[in-house]
Specification:
This protein has 146 residues and is an alpha+beta fold. Helices cover 29% and strands 50% of the residues. The protein has one domain: Nuclear Transport Factor 2, Chain: A (Roll), CATH 3.10.450.50. Strands 2-1-6-5-4-3 form a six-stranded mixed β-sheet. A hairpin with a 3-residue loop joins strand 4 and strand 5. The chain is elongated. The C terminus is likely disordered.
Length: 146
Amino acid sequence: MTPQHISDRLEIQDVLVRYCHAVDRKQWDILQTLFTDDATVDYSAFGGPKGPAGELPGYFIDVLANVRSTQHTISTSLIDLTEDHAVVRSAAQVMMISDAPNDTDHVLFVGLWYRDSLVKVADGWKLRERVQEYSWVHNVQSAHNG
């Protein structure tokens, strides 16, 4: 591995982690900087948008309206890298807490895979395409019934 290859891999991992923090902190302006202007997403596996990445802030604002807290994690990223393009598959888990009856917390968990395509542009690596793949959910049904 060359020093440039190592640097690129670290920068790509940083984009993936910044995405998680931007969503959890509801920093929609930062979220947008992680995508190219023509980026697309496919979040249909969980009922989300399929189209321009610019739709994500509105989608998250709606989905998180009744959620007190979220924590996104990403791990086991498999990065296939060329000079200016990368294909990445990463495991992700999302924990969400909302209010439940009787002043209790409702905690639900979602497991998914991200399939990403990133490109190297003048100011670093950016997501050009992000697809969510369904893996598992836990405690989601009671969230809708509670």
